[in-house]
Amino acid sequence: MWEELSEEYEALRGTVAEFARQEVAPVIGELYERAEFPYALVAKMGAMGLFGLPFPEEYGGMGGDYFALCLALEELGRVDSSMAITLEAGVSLGAMPIYRFGSAAQQQHWLPELCSGEKLGAFGLTEPGGGSDAGATRTTARCDGSDWVINGSKAFITNSGTDITSVVTVTAITGVSGGRKEISAIMVPAGQPGFTVSEKYSKVGWSCSDTRELYFDDCRVPAHHLLGERGRGYAQFLSILDEGRIAIAALSVGLAQGCVDECLRYARERHAFGHAIGSFQAIQFKIADMEVRAHTARLAYYAAAAKMLRGKPFKKDAAIAKLVSSNAAMENARDATQIFGGYGFMNEYPVGRFYRDAKILEIGEGTSEVQRMLIARHLGVEPRQR
């Protein structure tokens, strides 16, 4: 664990924090209300090297690690979650599967533009009606000569329909083995014939993030677009989700800490009954509880990241971090809105945006219920046999 960040980590954290305050905070409110994807801010993040943080320099990356990405996500989430999830999905879900499981040719072809932030990748796992049952895949891909022919649909896919999206990796049934589905991962370039992207969802939160439904109607891609080993696509994506849960935990900590930041400022400025509201013990205790949640959640994701980087088993730790951090974000957003009172219900104040953004953190990349299932399983509590 990192009781104290190294100079390199601290410098990165400070750089991203300054970018979030100086570049994101002044404009994100208007973009959010218009549900407009922040292309200019994404380009600036790309120029800073944020999309290449955990990737080797040979692909145009920064040569850092996954914890560096998490620090960046926390600082972005402290100001706005739409920006943070765009980075998280672009790196952890878009580029990371190619880096982890792609061939040398696939890595050389796709990773440089993804690491630079000039292009975005997406991860197509969830399907309509599937929800948390990620194994209930219905999308199919059959071999036809030298092509895969894909049919089906995916739901709630981040970064899948922007003007700079270059590739979406999807899971599909490629056969049946021993009575069980053989699920593989296949890369589908944006604009491929037979690949249709829906209009943007109208969402409660993450309004500046791009989220779409995807449709495949006899979509043909070359056979060499298979990512990793045939039949291992589901297992590959589960491992990606384990890492991604640490990243979502970091984003959640950012939102939780952002609520503390806003409440501290407001408690000093807002006066009631002749005093700053921060002088009232009810407000003091509420803010103290918020800080405790953010601090505890940060320790949880630090611990999970440390195990991951040491090559130790970290599935349970990632689930704990994701559960604790998303709970902290939701509870802090609720308390921050209460402290702000009527103003907390107004979109002009960041806490209103935080409140709208927090709930999805208890759902995306594995619901809180799924995290509890994973934790219980690692404690030896077996699910009921069907």
- The tally of domains stands at 3
Annotated CATH topology of the largest domain: Butyryl-CoA Dehydrogenase, subunit A, domain 3
Question: Largest beta sheet: what is the strand line-up?
Answer: 1-4-5-8
What's the helix count?
10
User: What is the number of E strands?
Assistant: 10
- Which series of helices and strands comes N to C? HHHHHEEEEEEEEHEEHHHH
Task: Specify Rg, calculated over alpha carbons.
Answer: 21 Å
- The CA-CA distance between the termini, in Å, is 40 Å
Low-confidence stretches: none
Q: How much helicity do the residues have?
A: 40-55%
Taking the sheet with the most strands, its summary is:
4 strands, mixed
The percent range for strand residues is 15-25%
Shape: globular
What would you give as the CATH superfamily of the largest domain?
Butyryl-CoA Dehydrogenase, subunit A, domain 3
CATH level 1 class label of the largest domain: Mainly Alpha
Please tell me the overall pLDDT. Answer: 95
Oligomer: single chain
Based on helices, strands and strand pairing, what is the structural class?
A: alpha+beta
Query: Under the CATH scheme, which architecture of the largest domain would be assigned?
Result: Up-down Bundle
